[in-house]
Amino acid sequence: MTAGGYFGRALVVDATDGTSRVVELDDRTLREHLGGAGLGVRLITDLAPGGVDPLGPDAPLAFVFSPLVGTPLTTSAKFAVVAKSPLTGMLTDALASSHFAIAGKLTGHDAIVVVGRAARPSVLLVDGADVRLEPADDEVGRSAAVTEVSVRERFGRAFKVAAIGPAGERGVLYATLSHDGRHAGRGGLGAVLGAKNVKAVAVRPRTKVAPADPAGVLAAAKDLRTRSFGAATAKYRELGTLANLLAFNALSTLPTRNFQAATFDGAPALAAEELAELRGTARNSCASCTIGCEHIYQLSPRRGGRTMRVEYENVFALGPMCGVSDPDDVLEASARCDDLGIDTISAGGTIAWAMECAEKGLLDAPWLRFGDGAALLRALDEIGTGTGLGPLLALGSRRAAAEVGQGSADFAPHVKGLELPGYEPRSLHAMALGLAVNARGADHNRSGAYEADLGGDLDRLDGGAAHVAAAVETEDRAAAMDSLILCKFLRGVFTDPWAEWAHLLSLVTGWDVDAAELHETARRIVLSKRAYNIREGWRPEDDWLPARLLQETLEMGSGRTAALTPERLRAMVDGYWAARGLDESGFPRTTVDMPAYDG
Ligand code: SF4
Question: What domain range is 108 assigned to?
Answer without folding.
Answer: 9-204
